[in-house]
Amino acid sequence: MGSLPPPSLDFSPIDHNPLKNGGSSHHHRQEISRDNLLNLFTSQQDLLNHFFKHLDLSQTLDFSRILLSTSGTVFFTGVGKSAFVANKVSQTLVSLSFRSSFLSPLDALHGDIGALSPRDVLVFFSKSGATEELLRLVPCAKAKGAFLVSLTSVSGNPLAGVCDMNVHLPLQRELCPFNLAPVTSTAIQMVFGDTIAVALMAARNLSKEEYAANHPAGRIGKSLIFKVKDVMKKQEELPVCKEGDLIMDQLVELTSKGCGCLLVVDEHHGLIGTFTDGDLRRTLKASGEAIFKLSVGEMCNRKPRTIGPETMAVEAMKKMESPPSPVQFLPVINEDNTLIGIVTLHGLVSAGL
Question: Quick check: helix, strand or coil at residue 152?
Fold first, then answer.
């Protein structure tokens, strides 16, 4: 298949002369038309489709199996924009529990090549396969015994000829109208590398829990790692009282702990019930001045929703939101009904769940 022609785009600026009476100054107003933008995306789609259509699946499968079977580290290297891709693909593999790292070709020749061993694979990202820095690295990497793979887009390139394996990444042309800026070749490299990473992930049967363990700061990671005991308030943070305490005597406790409730306990710290700020308003409306003589135990909810400390925190949020009506907190009790904490909706949201 022949090369696609460059996108037919009008790059000429629109001239405006604000001096209508013979002045020489003028401004150039640059614009992007809707048609030009659509043409660019359509052309890029065609170029990417060329890659997918002509990619050698046998080469790709061999490459994938090499990475899967290596007992060492998979190193990636590249120069310029390809270096950014190599680094990103390496980080993707690391996030999937594979041993991987980026190796700078310049730093490698000044000591970092000491990280290579005969158990490792070194993958070169290079559009042309003729980058001088990468070619200088090859004999040094071979001396360390590593298995070398080149990922290139130009046929018959020198890098492919000196590596142990080459995978050709078909490139019809760059989207750049001058066919110079690497805006399609790097997209191809990224798509290829990340797709291989997902293939390795599937081959290793990486579980959602294992993936989450590598992303503890993300929402997915937190939802699969954090338990109620990790996000609950406990000890002096708990708004506790006894059932015989007068409601009016516990207003400070009710409002100062930021939970919107009182946790009513017995002498053994067993949970009896809960009394919320909503209960306070309803009691005041129904009882008037009689509220001054009412105890918390008389008006508390003795059948509150509760949760255990080992339950996943995301399940606590689901329980709060479940019918018949949502709640803002859950007392945390152990198997003996002893109160050990409280988990609040605000606390779960603040934790990133």
Answer: strand
